[in-house]
TrEMBL record, chain A:
Gene Ontology terms: biological process: nuclear mRNA surveillance of mRNA 3'-end processing; rRNA catabolic process; rRNA processing
InterPro entries the UniProt entry points to: Dis3_CSD2 (IPR041505), NA-bd_OB-fold (IPR012340), PIN-like_dom_sf (IPR029060), PIN_dom (IPR002716), RNase_II/R (IPR001900), RNase_II/R_CS (IPR022966), RNR_Ribonuclease (IPR050180), Rrp44_CSD1 (IPR033771)
Record carries keyword Membrane: no
Originating species: Henosepilachna vigintioctopunctata
Region feature (Disordered): 940-983
Keyword Hydrolase appears in the UniProt entry: yes
Protein's name in the database: Protein DIS3 homolog
From TrEMBL, chain B:
Pfam families: RNase_PH (PF01138), RNase_PH_C (PF03725)
Molecular function terms, GO-annotated: RNA binding
Sorted UniProt keywords: Cytoplasm, Exosome
SUPFAM superfamilies in the cross-refs: Ribonuclease PH domain 2-like, Ribosomal protein S5 domain 2-like
GO biological process: nuclear mRNA surveillance; poly(A)-dependent snoRNA 3'-end processing; rRNA catabolic process; U4 snRNA 3'-end processing
The protein, known as: Putative exosome complex component RRP41
Compartments where found: Cytoplasm; Nucleus, Nucleolus
Subunit and interaction comment: Component of the RNA exosome complex.
Protein family according to the UniProt entry: Belongs to the RNase PH family.
Amino acid sequence: MFTTKSFIKKNKIGNFLKNVREHYIRDDIVCGFSSCYSCQNIQNNQNIGCSKDNFSSNHVNRCKLVEGNHYLILDTNVVLNQMDVLEDNLFGNVIILHTVLNEVKHRSLPIFKRLMSIIDNPSRHFYVFTNDHHKDTFIHQEDQELINDYNDRCIRKACTWYHRHLPKEKFVFLTEDNESKRIALEENIMTFSMSEYVHNLSDKHLVEDKLAKVSSSFPFTGKDIYQAHMSLVELLEGIRGGKLYQGTFKASRENFLEGYINVDGFDDPIIVQGREGLNRAVDGDIVAVALFEKEHWTSPTEIILEDEGVVEENIDELVEKEKEIKKAIKKKGDIKPTGKVVGVIRRKWRQYCGILEGGIEGVYQLFVPSNRSIPKIRIETRQAEFLKTQKLIVTIDSWPQNSRYPHGHFVRALGVIGHQDTENEVVLLEHDVPHSQFSEEVLRCLPKLPWVITEEDESRRVDLRHITICSVDPPGCTDIDDALHCRIIDDNKLEVGVHIADVSHFIRPGTAIDLEAASRATTVYLVNKRIDMVPELLSSNLCSLRGGEERFAFSCIWEMDYEANILSTKFHKSIIKSKSAMTYEEAQLIIDDKTKNDDIAFGLRGLNKLAKILKTRRLEKGALVLASPEVKIHMDSETMEPLEVEVKKLFETNSMVEEFMLLANISVAEKILQDFPDCAMLRRHPTPPSTNFDPLVKAGKHLGFDIQIDSGKKLAVSLDQAVSDSNPYLNTMLRILATRCMLQAVYFPSGTLQKSDFFHYGLAVPLYTHFTSPIRRYADIIVHRLLAVSCGADSTYPDLLDKHKSSDLCQNLNYRNRMAQYAGRASVAFNTHLFFKGKIQDEEGYVLFVKKNALQILLPKYGLECTLYLSKKGDESLFVYDEEEQTQKAGNVVFHAFDQVTVRVSLDSKNIQHEKFVLQLVYPYIEGFSVKPLIESEGADKSNMEQQTMDYQDKCNEQVSTMKKNKRKTQSNNEKRKQKKKV
Amino acid sequence: MSRKKELISNIGLRLDGRRAGELRRIRCKLGVFSEPDGSAYIEQGLTKVLAAVYGPHQVRGGRSKAQHDSAIVNCQFSMAVFSTGERKRRPRGDRKSTEMSIHLHQALVAAIKVELYPWTQIDVYVEVLHADGGIYPACVNAATLALIDAGIPLKEYVCACTASLANDDIPMIDISHQEEVMGGPTLTVAALPMSKKVVLLEMSQRFHVDHLPKVLKTALQGCVDIKNILDVTVSNNVKEIGSSTRWGNMT
């Protein structure tokens, strides 16, 4: 059947365990060329099936160094360093040796994943040749031979083999290692370095920019600017000996020459300052730090320094700024541990988003990352003029001693700076939201239109088409995933049903669409864009429970008495026909309109009554009512310009729908936990540690309220009691603070935790899950599948019951959900910025915190939290700070937390990367600090303001056309999401 | 989602270079000792097992154990201290080896024609010299060979094999230690491959019911493959021994 030669590989781990492994050498591994007869025969004999074409004759590698078409064999270092280049479509017909693949996997998992995704893409024609199991290319590792040398030898052996095996074809070996290149050339292998090869590509267009820079490729060679790093061995020895400390480097956002290192066992982070102190550490790196003697310790500078360097290696300006730091330090008293970075243990470099610094000519450009804690990066590009208008992504390659800035290379451009599309792209990228178009494979999984309900479907589902079911959602909502009904079935019994879109009917486990949805995990709502979890056909049509259309649903039906006590619960799949899809407002009108007495009105009233009882009961148990300043942004349909920012409105019907969704979720959670004690997907909200509540308790104390935090119930009660007649917004403010003390709720499979940890703190229920929004959350789909098995409507599949798989899945869901939330907020923040661009307004606000030199102000109307600085730099402050009482006093005006103020808001756009809000105090009026109300001083500002608005409108007009389409939809969905987030 | 536990590369090769349906190399030998009535040595990949068979002989110890209608099969399993990466004293009669002994007993009793030897006892001793996954199958296969060497009448070969799932999808056969540690559940099957009867089935963890049939089928195929290899060894052995009396040339 096969030839085997077994040999022994030994490796020793820690405790000197001897591992012996077999290694089979085969004669049935093919070279991958369909034109090769000998390999074709092997394949046919083995019945491996028809050979798919691994290499394409359509793709031709063109390089001036080689005549005609050729095939590329890559060295490990090429893959590791030049991944960005390889991802370019120019490269095809590449042979990846198994040795290389293993080495890459060993060295860098992210790079390995990227490589695998290229290999998996059939249009790229990357072929993996298993050289280490092939009888002709396998070689023994010699005694004393280092693994690297051995691997290089394997690679060269494979190159020679290919050359002999297919003499007609040309094979080119690419390596970055000079030594390896020299030996390869001696062995008559056609070898080039990556940069040689790329520079001579016939059609190189932008690929050159993506080349990672090896330090020597930059023409700046001067004297060393930085001290040399210690070697890794020295570092580890130093750390073990207690001379050095290991920690994560955090760069200061204000001062580019300062940073902190958090070290275990130190109360304060270690400060590092200046060029010498930072020594090429980049934010996030794990570094080794040497502590100075105590007399050299300093304090944080608290001055703002910006890097104004240009591309030349001129460090005069740097030296100047270092002096400035020294000056700043001398004034201060309290000293903190100080040290300097002596080496980097692990780089945490990633891809950074930002823009090019203007005003530099030539191919060497400076890149300014949006994240202020990242240094500027020098890149080489031949398209600088174009890139200056773009937001781009750049990655760091190296930071040699003699270079002031790290060297990097351009990865790709995102779009025009300040453009809505670009900003959305940035938001999505920074939050790692998968947002590409759905692939062909995914779309193939969709049902064919016209979609009809077959008899088989009817026989398997309960027919509820005759029941008056209706849905209540925000206006303009297209993905309706829940509908309700309520009817009398007995003198003292009501039947209440919650019907959820049956998404799991369309998304079958293991299909492409399922995998895609699992990886996306949730639909992401940006202000003017929605990134769907499932394709639109499902989300807005087949799954959406639209009024008057027959749809599949998963129903949860309770029998209740008039006191909202559940008498029985049942779950089944059903066919429903919603009578009406209403908005919250419409439903509210029907309930309030006494003249209406049809089925819908009756049902709604019944639901509403029950919901009120349910809500009181829930609150009695200690469920928290929390608040967060959430806003809705109205967009102009023509210009895509934010027209108005508004806090969302709530009707009684909102809470009605919410109560029944909660009830359904709880019922389902109980059911699936009972049937799947090991792998039920649940949601828990951990009790926050009491230290989290410190700010809340402190704030309460200053206002004379005693906030109890021992239990959810006590917290709820004390929040209810903290009401002030003079300041009606105070209670909301406290609730906002309380919200911030909370931990994130998370999904988990029931088998991984103790039952006592299943508790949902915010809702005060012992069990909870998500069942009601399968269109926009993947967790709900899983819950649907579990429930379907429970009620005999579907069968299980392996991954559903695997505790570890579920656990992995939960981790992804939690991560994506968190990111989706942040992305949503970032998008709102960006649009609020847009809204304020060129505007100056007086707004009502409340003091959230009193700080030493500033007041933290909350503007409820915009959900904005901004800082009002009480003293300008250098000036003497008019204010007196009372640390005990947490007040600021100026003359006879005293600021407490939660005081109402009026502030003037404007946007400082001086720095295009970091626009920020500027506040000025209007009321209460303090001589020499406050500004006059806007109405009086309006005349002066007006002309200027108009001009700015005009400019801005022009800019916006350009970008309208592309986004008009799905705008209304997304806007309303955004609203919907917010209302449901509490659920 | 994760590529963490990829046991079969996308070219279809396992970590040690086998394909999914390929056994490890099997080498075996009958009659390695002269003292016992029958003995055998088997190597399945790096797993190495010695087996010795004594009997049938008079029941030792309490007479009461003897049975009037069949022979008693007494199995003893042990592992050498040097058989795994870590050196460890393994006292005989610990929980693991007792369990192994019972399992062995079950498989062997199914094959031995015990009814031919009432009031007697057959002792089977197996010793693992090197453990690299699939210990139980190797023991069963070695014991079968030793029984044949001892000339004890068998209904047919009893063979065992393991199978598992690679990448949660592809059934693979004859699991090595490395794959056992990295992979999911392992199914061990002992079968009478000619009559296609399963005599022992053991799972290390739960399989999903969707997977079980195909894994079982793979494992049974493995038993048949192993039987064919053992068969060749046995007939060669018979030829060799019988060459002096010209037994081997009879066919």
